Each structure stands twice: as C-alpha cells, then as structure tokens.
Amino acid sequence: MNKRGSEKYYKLTLITEKGAEEYLPEEIYKYAKKGIWIEEDITTGIIKCYPEDIASFLRVLKDSGFKIKGLTIEEEEIPDYSEITKRYFKTITVCGIKIVPPWTKNKPVSSIIIEPGMAFGTGRHESTKIMMKLMQRIDFKNKDVMDMGCGSGILAIYASMLGAERVVAVDNDPDAVLSAKKNIDLNGLGNIDIVCANINDIRGLSNIILANLDIRTFQKYGENIKNRIKREGLIIISGILRKEKKQAFKEFEDFKCIAEECKNAWTGMILKPVS
C-alpha cells in the first residue's frame, strides 16, 4: 500500500482462441479469488484476473493443457479493489434469474445477489448454468439438499429459492466458505448451513445432492458422494467436459441418467439410483 492509500495489483490478461475460455479448469479459481473476467471479440477470447500468486496460477493452467496465445502482466494502483469488480462485473440472467452484485439498485424480485470475485460460482461458467437448468427439472419443495463444493454458494441459494426445506453447503476451502456465508446473508436466507469439510468427512443423508465438481474429484470421491444420498434420492452433477462423460459415469455405475444438459464443451446429468 503506498502513502496515498492505493494498493498495487498485478493484472494478468490472457489471449486465447475464441471459445477456449470455456475450458478453464475450475481449480484455477482458487488462485484468482478476486475474480476472473472473460471477454470476447470477433476472433479471440480475453481473460482478465488479478491472481495473488501468478506463478501458481500459470502452473495450473499449463498442467491442465489450457492453450494461451498471448499473455501480459500489468501493475495497477487501485485505491479500492471494489472498483475492479464494479468495472468488470455485469448482471447476467441464468434460467430466468438475475445474478446481481450487492451494489445493484432496484434489484429484481427473481434475483440472486453474489459478491463477485470471491469464489467460483458467479453464474458465468457453463457448468453453473447447466446445474441451474437441471435443478429446474426437479421438485425441491420440502427436500433436504447438500451442495458439495459450494464455492460462492450460488447453487445452495438457488435450491433454497426453489423450495428446499434445508440446505447444507460444503466446501473444503475456508475462503469459499466465507464467501458462501456472505452471499447467503446477502440473500437473507436462514435455511442454509455452511460446513468447511472434505467430501469424505461429510455425514448425514440428503434427498438431493448438488455436485458441480471436476472429473478428478468425481474419480476420487464418487463413492463418498453416492453414500450421502437418501433412498430414491437424486444427484445432479456437472463440472465435466463432454469428452469426460464416460469417465464420470463410471463412478456412478449403479445409477441411471434420467436427464442430461449440455452447453458448449460442458455437460451435466441428473442421476438416480438403479432400484
């Protein structure tokens, strides 16, 4: 922080092929907790973020196989980080629900308030949109719901809006848990409990499980996820690429897919135990 109270930030701008930003690994959000903003022009995708650890951010991108055409790093002095979020965050509509930042005036009745840049789940990622679309197909009224890997809490909040009686939002990232708590409070919801835990440490059963994760997490914790569902319950999964669908489904061989939703490179499914 300099003598005038401005803090220095490093802005990372990545140039990719148009549409390539859809393949951003979810893990990358852990290294850009202040937010990731995606823009497009006619031929390219532009990703802007302010990672605290640029080296780790780029390492995760490289390990994931994500292709970059160009990269710039710029130092900025910003008096208040909220200026960055206000500069880039725009209201979007997902499944008829407006996703709005806290500073929005005259918020629509059907809206979810999300503090942008705090954790994965501002409604912009394709997998979040897929999850919300699949959730619309299910009756949540009076159901117990568990959101595994809740990130910002957006899916837990949406489950509550859809009529869930009780929601347990779980994440192993303390920063994500704090983010979810703030967003839940912003939306004035009292039926969501937040737990900081690993998936294999979770206890209790739910009617509906929400799991917007990634293929590696499904492969590691698939059995734990299945063990948390009540008889006749449902699991909604996403965070997987279309090409990973068969790999993911191997973890749920004793389940059947009753609905599927795809958006660009991503897919999601509603799974039901085989009786």
Give the helix/strand layout.
Layout: E1 7-17, E2 36-40, E3 44-49, H1 54-64, E4 70-78, H2 82-88, E5 92-94, E6 97-100, E7 111-113, H3 126-135, E8 144-148, H4 154-161, E9 166-171, H5 174-186, E10 192-196, E11 206-212, H6 215-226, E12 229-241, H7 245-250, E13 255-263, E14 266-273
Parallel strand pairs: 6-7, 8-9, 8-11, 9-10, 11-12
Antiparallel strand pairs: 1-3, 1-4, 2-3, 5-6, 12-14, 13-14
Your description of this structure?
It contains 7 helices and 14 strands. It folds into 2 domains: 81 residues, Alpha-Beta Plaits (2-Layer Sandwich); 148 residues, Rossmann fold (3-Layer(aba) Sandwich), CATH 3.40.50. A 7-stranded mixed sheet has the order 10-9-8-11-12-14-13, with helices on both faces. Strands 2-3-1-4 form a 4-stranded antiparallel sheet. It has a 3-stranded mixed sheet with strand order 5-6-7. It is 24% helix and 34% strand. By secondary structure, the chain is α/β, with parallel strands linked by helices. The model has no long low-confidence stretch (mean pLDDT 87).
Low-pLDDT stretches: none
Count every beta strand, where a strand is a DSSP E run of 2 or more residues.
14
Compute the average pLDDT: 87
Shape label:
globular
How many helices does DSSP assign?
Answer: 7
Largest sheet: 7 strands, mixed
CATH superfamily of the largest domain: Vaccinia Virus protein VP39
Span of the ends, CA to CA? 61 Å
As a whole number of angstroms, the C-alpha radius of gyration is 19 Å
The CATH first-level class of the largest domain comes to Alpha Beta
